[in-house]
């Protein structure tokens, strides 16, 4: 399975107003529940209206389009990282999954994926 390294610096934010979020940016992910609105975007694009933010993330993208019948893909990667004391922030979209890792652990995480047989692109 191919895993792409995304070269952006990312931030995970909490927002209460999405009007300042540019949905045309290269990478924007919004999640809304009854408790909050979360935003993941490039650090350089965090809106001034962010209530809270956590900077210093890098990301991997699973390159294949994942069929809904596939089981355990994210779990296997999460377990690999957990076994090596690496925290993740996972994002699932209709087509695929993204795994965010703190920048300080990114190269270690990349090496672990390669050692586990994933093709890093």
Core attributes:
single chain, 121 residues, alpha+beta, VC0802-like, seven-stranded mixed beta sheet, 7 strands
Helix content: 10-25%
Q: Determine the strand fraction and express it as a percent band.
A: 35-45%
Number of strands: 7
Provide mean pLDDT, rounded: 92
Largest sheet: 7 strands, mixed
Termini distance? 10 Å
Please give the oligomerization state of what you see. single chain
| Architecture per CATH nomenclature, i.e. the level-2 architecture | 2-Layer Sandwich
Q: What do we call the CATH homologous superfamily?
A: VC0802-like
How many alpha or pi helices?
Answer: 2
Order of helices and strands: EEEEHEEHE
Instruction: Could you tell me the CATH topology label.
Output: VC0802-like
Number of domains: 1
Structural write-up:
The chain has 121 residues and is α+β, with helices and mostly antiparallel strands. It has one domain (2-120): VC0802-like, CATH 3.30.2130. It is built from 2 helices and 7 strands; from the N terminus they run ββββαββαβ. Strand 5 and strand 6 (97-102) form a beta hairpin. The longest helix is centred in the middle third of the chain and has 11 residues, at 73-83. The radius of gyration is 15 Å and the shape is elongated. It starts with a strand and ends with a strand. The relative contact order is 0.24.
List the helices and strands and how they pair.
Layout: E1 2-15, E2 28-32, E3 37-42, E4 50-62, H1 73-83, E5 88-92, E6 97-102, H2 106-115, E7 119-120
Parallel strand pairs: 1-7
Antiparallel strand pairs: 1-3, 1-4, 2-3, 4-6, 5-6
